[in-house]
From TrEMBL:
Signal peptide (UniProt feature, chain positions): none
Annotated keywords: DNA-binding, Transcription, Transcription regulation
Pfam families documented for this protein: LacI (PF00356), Peripla_BP_3 (PF13377)
Gene name of the record: cytR
Domain spans labelled HTH lacI-type: 8-64
SMART domains: HTH_LACI (SM00354)
Name the record gives this protein: HTH-type transcriptional repressor CytR
Lineage: Bacteria, Pseudomonadati, Pseudomonadota, Betaproteobacteria, Burkholderiales
Coiled-coil intervals, chain numbering: none
Protein origin, superkingdom: Bacteria
Gene Ontology MF terms: DNA-binding transcription factor activity; transcription cis-regulatory region binding
InterPro entries from the UniProt entry: HTH_LacI, LacI/GalR-like_sensor, Lambda_DNA-bd_dom_sf, Peripla_BP_I
Length: 339
């Protein structure tokens, strides 16, 4: 049986790249490569690839106290919102040599348990998409001075930096669109009001209506951002006798559930009732009717959250702020002037 070739060492990389061993070490360390010129970093990385060099992260973590790993907490990895956010996170971190550890906290483990496990694995920071407005985990992580960035969520007291979409503006875009079409009786399906997205989008919906001198034709809070919760919320509106010609949902899955409930009662979308979603998840242009929705920049949100965390890890000033991204309205077939 042929013997395996011995693994390349840092000395081998330094010799191949014609640099000092310390320089090679810095070039391969995400936290220190900024100390080396980009040309030298490229040369060292090329040498590492040529020699099939792999960093021993466990040994490096013991030696330097840095793991080169970032933890990401997601509330439901099956929700179409999160894969593009995660892709933005991974690409930003991979470019700096960091590895991403992902936890889905929607079923078997809580966000607290996932965060503790990741911190026990010596992750250097966390990107959290699970936080509620008044979240004990957020307060604990803030008090522990952990390096954390929230994504697609914000906490009520602004304890941690976050990257979010402008939820108030998003609802304004949806309401203004429907009013311009002639709708005056507009209902709202909100997300869970314990989440910043649920509370802020509801507030934005009400503010936008008030600006037009209107009041909500009905409101139902949904227990989750899911198809089933949207279907249930729309049924509750209908069962309560709410009279509306349009529905603004706080999430695309809620909107799709609402369409299902409306169609089950013989109402046609958009001829009888217009429906507008929020997020522009993948394939919303392929459903029937294609969903009018508010597009948020999922990939950009994840990428910016990762960059904010990287800056925090390096002690760059100004990394405690909240980044708010601008949404846009995408008009498709689920909205039309009232009959």
């Amino acid at each position: 049986m042929p013997k395996r070739s011995p693994a390349a060492t840092l000395d081998d990389i330094a010799l191949h790249a014609q640099v000092h061993k310390t320089t090679a070490s810095r070039a391969l360390d995400p936290a220190r490569r900024h100390m080396i010129s980009p040309e030298v970093v490229r040369r060292v990385e090329a040498a590492a690839r040529a020699l099939n060099y792999r960093v021993n992260r466990a040994a490096s973590a013991l030696r330097t106290g840095r793991s080169g790993t970032v933890g990401v907490l997601l509330p439901d990895i099956t929700n179409p919102v999160f894969p593009p956010i995660l892709r933005g996170i991974e690409q930003a971190l991979a470019a700096e040599g960091f590895f991403v550890m992902v936890a889905d906290t929607g079923h078997e483990q809580s966000p607290d348990e996932a965060a503790d496990r990741m911190l026990a694995q010596r992750v250097e920071g966390l990107i959290v998409a699970t936080s509620s407005l008044r979240d004990p985990l957020v307060r604990r992580l803030s008090q522990d001075q952990a390096k954390v960035v929230l994504v697609n969520r914000r906490d009520e007291d602004g304890l941690l930096p976050s990257v979010v979409s402008d939820d108030i503006l998003g609802m304004k875009l949806a309401v203004d669109h429907l009013v311009a079409q002639g709708h005056r009786r507009i209902a709202h399906l909100s997300g869970p009001l314990g989440l910043s997205t649920g509370a802020l989008r509801k507030a934005g919906f009400e503010q936008a209506l008030a600006a037009h001198g209107l009041q909500a034709a009905g409101h139902a809070e949904c227990t989750a951002y899911s198809f089933e919760a949207g279907e249930d919320g729309a049924r509750r509106l209908l069962d309560a006798g709410a009279s509306f010609s349009a529905v603004v949902a706080a999430n695309d899955l809620l909107a799709l559930g609402a369409i299902q409930a409306l169609q089950a009662q013989g109402r046609c979308v958009p001829d009888d009732v217009s429906v507008v979603g929020h997020n522009d998840m993948p394939l919303m242009d392929r459903v029937f009717p294609a969903l009018t929705t508010v597009r948020i920049l999922h990939y950009e949100m994840g990428y910016r959250a990762a960059r904010l965390l990287l800056d925090s890890l390096r002690g760059v000033p100004g990394t405690t702020s909240t980044v708010v991204l601008r949404p846009e309205l995408v008009v498709r077939g689920s909205s039309a002037p009232p009959a």
